[in-house]
């Protein structure tokens, strides 16, 4: 008779927003926090490159169910473009592959950024986790077999030049959705100006509802855990990740049906439906408790993710 595997660690639920230091992978941060909190289940809401710093949302327990909604949220970045050098990784961690003496004007950089705003087609960096015929692109690149990656649709909501410290460097602010590579934007804005470039500094300032005000340094967490597992009081509620999603208030009997996975006819609470588009996802509330997420479709509220 098969036995259910017992998870090791504490059954913690919630979000922790880490201000990731440079030089660490997102996976390494997850491993450290899983050990420090002695948590059963830990994941993250969107990879940051080792070179990058800034917001890395960490999900524990039930919060891992809301990771897709965090990853779909708006992200804000600042990056410094180093002009005149192309790198194989499109950031400062890579090897130099080309150089140029061309240094564009501020106006040229601003125009190139404007042209890369909106719905664009973007070629991902070869040093990325995308799979090509079952292999990771970065593994192929490290083996000297960099793959030809096809352009992919991307949505860039804001891309502006915010500082020009000197002729060799330009600082940009970007707001984008899921799956947009900052390293590709840096590479492409330089190429559009007739030169080459790569990211020298990258920082993420926002992920969905999380901002720098929510962030805590990894050093502070590790320091507080020297005498035992870190305190669960450091975690934000699971529902924090869903704060940007319109809410619908349910009566106790409606909430009971939703908890059992049943759909509700919208005509019964048409006056409580938030302003959303067709087939939009809503946050289903039982008083102050978030039951999960539902979808408004064809006259019904159907649960799609229960917490």
From TrEMBL:
InterPro entries on file: PsdUridine_synth_cat_dom_sf, PsdUridine_synth_N, tRNA_psdUridine_synth_TruB, tRNA_sdUridine_synth_fam1_C, TruB_C
Catalytic reactions on record: uridine(55) in tRNA = pseudouridine(55) in tRNA
Active-site feature positions: 49 (nucleophile)
Cited Gene3D superfamilies: Pseudouridine synthase
SUPFAM superfamilies tied to this protein: Pseudouridine synthase
Keywords, sorted A to Z: Isomerase, tRNA processing
Enzyme Commission identifier(s): 5.4.99.25
Domain tRNA pseudouridylate synthase B C-terminal: 183-242
BP terms from Gene Ontology: mRNA pseudouridine synthesis; tRNA pseudouridine synthesis
Keyword Aminoacyl-tRNA synthetase annotated: no
Domain tRNA pseudouridine synthase II TruB subfamily 1 C-terminal: 246-307
Domain Pseudouridine synthase II N-terminal: residue ranges: 34-182
Statement: the UniProt record of this protein carries the keyword Transmembrane helix: no
Domain of life: Bacteria
GO molecular-function terms, A-Z: RNA binding; tRNA pseudouridine(55) synthase activity
Pfam name, any one: TruB_N
Similarity comment: Belongs to the pseudouridine synthase TruB family. Type 1 subfamily.
NCBIfam families the UniProt entry points to: TruB (TIGR00431)
PANTHER family given in the database record: PSEUDOURIDYLATE SYNTHASE TRUB1, TRNA-PSEUDOURIDINE SYNTHASE
Function recorded in the entry: Responsible for synthesis of pseudouridine from uracil-55 in the psi GC loop of transfer RNAs.
Name of the protein this chain belongs to: tRNA pseudouridine synthase B
Organism encoding this protein: Acetobacter aceti
